[in-house]
Amino acid sequence: MALGYVRPARPEDAGEIARLQLATWRAAYRRILPRHVLDNLDEAYLARRWSAAVQEPPSGAHRVLVAVEQAEQSYLVGFAASGPADAEALAPSEPAEALADGVAAVTDLLVEPRWGRRGHGSRLLAAMVDHWREDGFTHAVAWAFDADAATRKFLTSTGWEPDGAARALDVDDMLVPQVRLHVGVPTEPATSS
Predict the structure, then answer these.
(1) Residue 47 CB partners (closer than 8 Å, separation 6+)
(2) Distance between CA atoms of 185 and 39, rounded to whole angstroms?
């Protein structure tokens, strides 16, 4: 029987987080982003960025969490990153005060497709919510590719809703539409019946 859990990322996880990001993007976004863009992503560059995010976060409320599948061996199978909402969380032409204090922004929430449907995404999201609650966040936002039905379905199944904001990322002269979702952060942990 396989077990899974979530823990804070460690500096030595940066390379594996980068590998997971590339593998997941190349599988999940191959019909969303240009192939040559996905093919030319630099794993070493991503690993350096993840190392900095883990070792030198901009604040104590910026977190990188990893999901671990534990069977005969332990495998890093997904990760999530979030922090206080900043300019990157805003829609184009949206004023800075549109996302007030108390709003967390998910920058990444990925589970490698071969490890999907085992509860890792739910565990990552639940752990993030626990941290948001501890840090005093009352709401959270996340951008998802409009064509990424899996991410949008996962988030909406857990109570997230589109908030009406949209943008298009310019990816090598190709505009890729995104929608923003939001959710209230519960003040108390969910209890299981």
Answers:
(1) 14, 15, 17, 18
(2) 37
Q: In this structure, what CATH number is given to the domain that contains residue 44?
A: 3.40.630.30
pLDDT for 147-192, tens place per residue?
Answer: 999 999 999 999 999 999 999 988 888 899 999 999 999 887 765 5
pLDDT digits (tens, 9 = 90+) for 163-175: 999 999 888 888 9
Residue 98 inside a domain? The answer is: yes
pLDDT exceeds 70 at position 1: no
Tokens of 184: 């209230």
What are the pLDDT digits (tens) for 99-133?
Answer: 878 999 999 999 988 766 777 999 999 999 999 99
Whole-angstrom Cα distance, residue 5 to residue 115? Answer: 13
Q: Domain for residue 88, yes or no? A: yes
Q: Where are the beta strands (DSSP E) in the chain?
A: 3-8, 63-70, 74-84, 103-111, 139-145, 161-171, 174-184
**Comparing C-alpha atoms, which of 70, 85, 76 is closest to residue 15?**
76
**Which residue range(s) make up the domain with 24?**
3-141
